[in-house]
Amino acid sequence: MPAAGTPVAPTRPRPPDTTWRRGLTGAVVTALVATLLAFAPATTAHAAPVLLSQGKPVTTSSQEHNGTPAAHAVDGDNGTRWSSAHSDPQWIQVDLGAPAALSQVELRWETAYAEAYRIELSTDGNTWSTAYSTTSGGGGTETVDISGTARHVRMTGTARATQWGYSLWEFKVFGSTGGDGPVIPGGGDLGPNVHVFDPSTPGIQAKLDEVFRQQESAQFGSGRHAFFFKPGTYNGLNAQIGFYTQIAGLGLRPDDTTINGDVTVDAGWFEGNATQNFWRAAENLALNPVSGTNRWAVSQAASFRRMHVKGGLNLAPSGYGWASGGYIADSKIDGTVGPYSQQQWYTRDSSVGGWTNGVWNMTFSGVEGAPATGFPDPPYTTLDTTPISREKPFLYLDGDTYKVFAPDKRTGARGTTWASGTPQGRSVPLDQFYVVKPGATAATINAALAQGLHLLFTPGVYHVDRTIEVNRPGTIVLGLGLATIIPDNGVTAMKVADVDGVRLAGFLIDAGPVNSPTLLEVGGENATADHAADPTTVQDVYIRIGGAGPGKATTSIVVNSDDVIIDHTWVWRADHGEGVGWETNRADYGVRVNGDDVLATGLFVEHFNKYDVEWYGERGRTIFFQNEKAYDAPNQAAIQNGSTKGYAAYRVDDSVDTHEGWGMGSYCYYNVDPTIRQEHGFRAPVKPGVRFHHLLVVSLGGNGHYEHVINQTGSPTSGTSTVPSTVVSFP
């Protein structure tokens, strides 16, 4: 279809036949032309018509069944649809969010189409005018030219062409919002720090090695990189993955892209200690490890997703120094996973050939082949399924076209999404994304969102002087190569409206030197909408306060919306690096959950000045929690919480009636004042609906101690041997 309502460039009136000017001097001609143009009618610049309706709030008179909701008619996917009840009349209406000058409506009908219908417009959603009507609709794709200014657009079907209801694959509204700013194009290239290979590309190993040399020890550097491998087979590679580096396949399934070789993380740069191997990712690849076992020795903020390891997986560094990971999801490891020196690990919706040993906390949900629960010895917490999950969106190639695949939600999930074939979900072409590159401003990013585009952040560091506002249901915000957003002047980096189905994934928010009240907010303060059918997900979204330089934020993440899934996050007030000190990188609270029915799968929150996690919403659930209290408390008085010694790592408010957690640990290392006593790691109301399974607290080397595990339950830690104090169930 040609661009909807593409305008003809306006022209100024010009003088008639110019032969009369012969013989006049250039100066005189110039003066005469200037005079004529001065009296010419003024022209007005108009923004080119664009698709306004995609992802906007939509309502209907009825819905045939759960599989055909209204939102499917504005999701940009020609494979999903809305369908109504089998009666007349029926309607579907979209709220564009602001008045717009309208030019065209496109109706892409399924077999059940309208023989008679009206296109109606409204400024307030109550009073409607008819912009178009017909009694001879033909089905298929109908393109209707309209004119008028409205915020709400409605299709009202008055006579069905079949015995069924009305069914639309897509309901598209085109126009402009009236500004004279440029239309922001979707799509485009992925920038210089996205390295795309196919099996015939020369010098792949050399490029991998070059980037690794830059990133191996660049813990707080500005380099950001993503390696993408087109479907095919690659031989003899060893991809060593350093800081802020992502490696991924571009197929729909991991087995579409096979590396006969390794994707390696080790700790040679840090003398064999892997506890600082942060901020990296491996996704959507099949590996045939050279030795039969692939090494992935990582700690926090390092995801291993949609991977197929045709052998074993070693999670420890060579030499078996300490490591503090970690996270696996939607992956298949044919052989045995050996965590060895890993302090803790969470694995979700995967398949393993076996699992050997563990240190303090190994947690599994929905994992085929997982070991049986044995906490505290062996330290295994195993749930047969994951209550609710939805995998992270990812970039892939459909032929030569880049798209982002957004997997469907699963309930009671077990095993991978791709074991039995192509995963279920929707594909969004790259031309529906604003491809954000370094130098982009928050104003442009917000304009792209308002225009109806999704966001794809290419690898880089982005300063924003105003909040990124994600207001449209179903918006995808996807970062590549650990793209990093830094809020300037104390603004909140990103806010998500209380809408369905937003997906945030794959980026780092790094606090700026001026205190931000929050860094990420999901839902407004009084959010009440039910999002159970299509929740917002926050996946591989990391927060950092300090480390790369001074940073401050009162609360890092606030979740106000109901039904949100937090799937793997590391929220970290830095304990080392630049700009670190009790007040220098002040950050009182890590994660605050106000929404109901929020699920956290893989929650890592560390070192906050007060509470690391506070939970106020009902029916919250956390599967796996890892925490360290702030190392740098100067003395007991600095952390005193009224009459309580210290702030709990994880606190459920006394108002909450229902809450549950599995596989949760808190550690202390008060190295500035080792005499500090921490009352407990966990605090919760004693109620029948509030339950915890498999809790532990650990004093690292005797630097400070816990007096209890949860409330007044659990033995105190003691000595310097880092032996956990555990509670199997509470109450």
Automatic annotation (TrEMBL):
It comes from the Bacteria. Coiled coil: none annotated. Residues 57-66 have a biased composition (Polar residues). It comes from Streptomyces peucetius. The keyword Signal applies. This is Discoidin domain-containing protein. Residues 1-47 form the signal peptide. Keywords: Signal. It holds the Pfam family F5_F8_type_C. InterPro entries: FA58C, Galactose-bd-like_sf, Pectin_lyas_fold, Pectin_lyase_fold/virulence, SACTE_4363. Residues 713-731 have a biased composition (Low complexity). Residues 38-176 form the F5/8 type C domain. Residues 1-21, 57-85, 712-731 are annotated as: Disordered.
